[in-house]
Amino acid sequence: MDFDLTPEQRAIQQLAREFAEGEVRPKAEEMDREERFPYDLTAKMAELGFFGLPFPEEYGGVGGDTTSYALAVMEIARADASTAITLAAAVSLGAMPFYLFGTKAQKERYLVPLAQGKQLWGFGLTEPEAGSDAANCKTRARLESGSWVINGTKAFITNSGTDITGGTTITAATGTRSDGKIEISNIIVPQETPGFARSRKYRKMGWRASDTRELSFADAKVPEDHLLGVRGEGFTQFLTILDGGRISVAALSVGLALGAYDEALKYAKERRAFGKSISSFQAIQFKLVDMIVQIDHAKLMMLKAAWEKDQGRDFAYNASLAKLYAGEISHRVVNDAVQIHGGYGFIDEYPVSRMYRDQKINEIGEGTNEVQRMIIARMIGI
Amino acid sequence: MRIVVTVKLVPDLNAEKRIDPTTKRLVRTGMETVLNPYDEYALEAALQLKAKQGDDTTVTLLSMASESLKETLRKALAMGADDAVVLSDDALAGSDVAMTSAALAQALKKIGFDLVICGGLADDGSTGGVPGAIAEHLGLPGLTNARHLEIVGGTIKAQRETDSGYQAVTCPLPALVSVTMAVGEPRYASLKGIMGAKKKTIATLSGSDIGFENRAPKTELLSFAPPPARTKARIVEASDGATGARAIFDFLRERKLV
Question: Which of A9, A113, B43, B251 could form an SS bridge with A5, CB 3.0 to 4.6 Å?
Answer without folding.
Answer: A9
